[in-house]
Amino acid sequence: MPKLVLEHSNDNVIDIFTRKPLSDLSNNRIIRVAAELDGLEILYSNSENPDKLFSVKVLAWGLKVSGEVVGLVPWLDKLVACDEINDPLNGQWQGYYDQGVDQLFFNAPLHKVVELETAADYYDYQCDSDEEIIQEIPDSIGTHAVLSEDSFHSITLKEVVSWQLLSNGEINAMIINEEKVESTPVLPGDNCLYPAESCDSFRYFFQHNIANKIKSQDPDAMAAISMLDDG
Predict the structure, then answer these.
(1) How far apart are CA 126 and CA 142, in angstroms?
(2) Is residue 79 within 8 Å of residue 73, measured between CB atoms?
(3) CB atoms < 10 A from the CB of 40, how many?
């Protein structure tokens, strides 16, 4: 990836795409993930609905090089840290939420921090390239990838089977190539899986509730889809 060197210090090496110091990007790299299995969510607000809070299920927790542990959610067209969500309506993260006990909190649960730190110590990989597979975890929240080749005049919904963490910190959503399926059910690591992000027609991730409304031709969902246009 091209870099613009301003001075010799690493803190002054700026990535021309993100405009962030290279040292910051390195510290933010995810080195280990743990699936969220207890239904924890994030709450966020946006400027269009100042009196409302919206929820999204946390997919997983990620350990950064810096040691910070953050929740991860499929957001628009990528998997992002919960506190970095960027909503088109000026959305803002408001915290993590445990619906079972009606509790709002702002740091990763201690048991997930311990799980990630212990696993990272145990699996201390030495990788020869930036794209070696470190982990692959199943999708447990019903994420769907939306594909469209004609500016949303027609769409294809594909269930995300798993998420693949690479040694460079990238996390890809793995979907099924139906022509390569040899056995079912398709499980994480199957040879028929490929990254949704590698498709030119990939547009967004949808939560399962939205995807199901689209599948059932819900009028409100279809109206919302008709307003999408990737330009």
Answers:
(1) 32
(2) yes
(3) 20
